[in-house]
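Justification of resources, computational component.

The compute hours requested in this renewal are based largely on the per-chain cost of generating structure records like the one below. Each record pairs the submitted sequence with a full structure-token output. That output is archived, and it is also reused by downstream analysis tasks.
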Amino acid sequence: MTRIILFNKPFGVLSQFTDTRSPSPRPTLSAYIDVPGVYPAGRLDRDSEGLLLLTDDGALQAQIADPRHKLPKTYLVQVEGEPTQADLAPLQTGVTLNDGPTRPAAVRLIDPPALWDRDPPVRYRKSVPDCWIEITISEGRNRQVRRMTAHIGFPTLRLVRWRVGDWTLDGVAPGHWQDAVPR
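The structure output for this chain reads:
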């Protein structure tokens, strides 16, 4: 039977089990998950948080990670500034980044979500407002959401992946994991 693990990856943790590129190792999945034979299905940047799926099924791993399958991924994004719906509109039709055009994204302004505190905390500046948006994309280029929000003039301060396909982070605390039911 296929095993799928939902992991709430904390800020600063690499989406891999070893760190071979750094002379002083950075935190990796091995500090949190001691389950043989599972591997990440996709990646989540070191400075991003949230849902990372792991599985022991290579075909499912490829299906989750490969943008050709257009599996939607939803992010809660704290941005610098206060975008309007008009500011977000280009993301809904797709923007052109340095590696080409993005697919249209579903994006909307949201109230600040009830999330855990981040360690280290997001920088706070009295003179610069911030707000939260929810964005759903169906591809997964390197740092794509961060580059999309910067493209429209609202840099990302905090990025939390909340959903991948039908799997969500509901009930999974930061640094913890649970088994999921295969879909």
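Residues 72-164 form a domain with the Alpha-Beta Plaits fold (CATH 3.30.70.1560). The radius of gyration is 16 Å.
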